[in-house]
Amino acid sequence: MQVELVTIGTELLLGFTVDTNSAFLGQALGAIGVTVARRTAVADRPDAIRAAVEEALRRTGAVITTGGLGPTRDDLSKKVVAELFGWPLRFDEGVWAELGARWRRMGRELSSANRCQAEVPEGAVVLPNQWGTAPGLWLEGPPGLVVMLPGVPREMRKLTEHEVVPRLQARAGERVIRSAVVRTTGIPESSLAARVGPHEDELAPLSLAYLPATTGVDLRLTAWDRPPAEADRLLAAGVERLRALAGDHAYGTEEDDLAAVVLETLRRQGMTLALAESCTGGMLGERLTAIPGSSDVLVGGVIAYDNAVKTRQLDVDPGLLAGHGAVSLEVARAMAAGAQARFGTTAAVAVTGVAGPAGGSDEKPVGTVCFGWIARNQSEAARVVFPGNRREIRERACQYALHCLWLMSRGS
User: For 5-39, b where at least 16 C-beta lie within 10 A, e where not — what string?
Assistant: First the structure.
């Protein structure tokens, strides 16, 4: 089964709102064997909405729309699609009563502007929205199938899960489209491709995509049009093969966060961690403390942005700063040792660098970051020059610090 997605909202075209709904729908539908053949975004204009839905119906006969079901003047989707089906809008007392009850539970009262949300195309099936005020609609007739969902992401996702997927699954058959992701870091896309590329034929019939980001490269495998058990078996074998090919650069799968992987590794080893951050300014600490249970491992840290803080709080020798500069292997090592001593931990990480856009030199260009690590009674340091703007350099520095700590703490 194929469907097209039509996302409605001028804010999507202006770039003020990122369309996360299409990404969610693509995954949810693929999991039940429904292929998204095309995605179209249109403004809140009746002619644009009608043209997009009409053309999509001619191509696939099935369309899912998001947006345009609210109570304001720019919410026009329902009226346009009802006209396309030739169905008049009727006020539904049952929908209105349910809306009123839901709003009263929230301590609010409906206004006359909300009455339009209780108007239902004659012949449409109402998809109850327990998570918001705009019910979804299921219209099926001579033009084809149109499923209309609100644009609010949480409401759209819940309606998809509880109302849309069960209905479409019955039509999609016994074959699915499923994906699996292997997460890698510390290796450029080109180098990863050099490792994996010669073996891609071994992954058939799965398809492989490289998804680079500032923190690493995700490898996405997809099984197309397969029975569920076969798709799962192929993906499991493919994931294991990719992890073997990527080696120590593969740290997890799906939505795994490297910070969580590091914390779990340290926890298993009975280790505790201290941080000393300069150019990252607490970003590394934020990555770690965003993980529930991080207090089992992370004891504390120092944001040693100024050299005076490095000497006072981390006992960095002023002679090292004068002789080598704040961005140096020597100072990074001393910062890690100072953090470990101050917090009494078994592991420590230090980061100091030039994040830019100014402050670089021929010897230490923008993007130069020095690291210090202590773990398993060993001390290491590294100097790396990262590409990108200030934010990207800092993100890459945090990921690199975590990756090397992970390798050290597990004994790699």
Answer: bbbbbbebeeeebebebbebbbebbbbbbbebeeb
Cα–Cα distance, 330 to 333 (Å, whole number): 5
For residue 328, what are its two tokens? 């140096």
What pLDDT does residue 108 have? Answer: 72
| Listed residue (80, 98, 97) closest to 89, CA to CA | 80
- Least Cα distance to 92 among 128, 118, 121 occurs for 118
Strands of the sheet containing 62-66, edge to edge, are 35-42, 2-8, 62-66, 144-149, 136-141, 125-127
118 pLDDT band, cuts 50/70/90, is confident
Highest mean pLDDT among 87-91, 162-166, 298-302: 298-302
Beta strands in 193-297 (DSSP E): 207-213, 216-226, 250-253, 273-277
Of the chain, the end-to-end C-alpha distance in Å amounts to 47
CATH number listed for the domain at residues 258-409: 3.90.950.20
Taking the CA atoms of residue 309, residue 312, residue 315 and residue 319 in that order, the dihedral angle to the nearest 10 degrees is 80
pLDDT score at 175: 80
Fold of 176-253: Alpha-Beta Plaits (3.30.70)
DSSP code per residue over 107-140: T----GGGGGGGEEETTPEEE--TTSS--EEEEE
Indicate the domain borders of the chain. Answer: 2-172, 176-253, 258-409
Tell me how many degrees the CA angle 88-89-91 measures, rounded to the nearest 5: 140
| Segment 98-113, tens digit of pLDDT | 878 877 777 777 677 6
CATH topology of domain 2-172: Molybdenum Cofactor Biosythetic Enzyme; Chain A (3.40.980)
How sure is the predictor about 49, in pLDDT bands with cuts at 50, 70 and 90? very high
- The DSSP call for residue 200 is G
Q: Flag whether pLDDT at 412 surpasses 60.
A: no
Plot region of 259 (φ>0 → left; ψ -120 to 50 → alpha; else → beta) = alpha
Residue range 310-335: mean pLDDT, rounded = 97
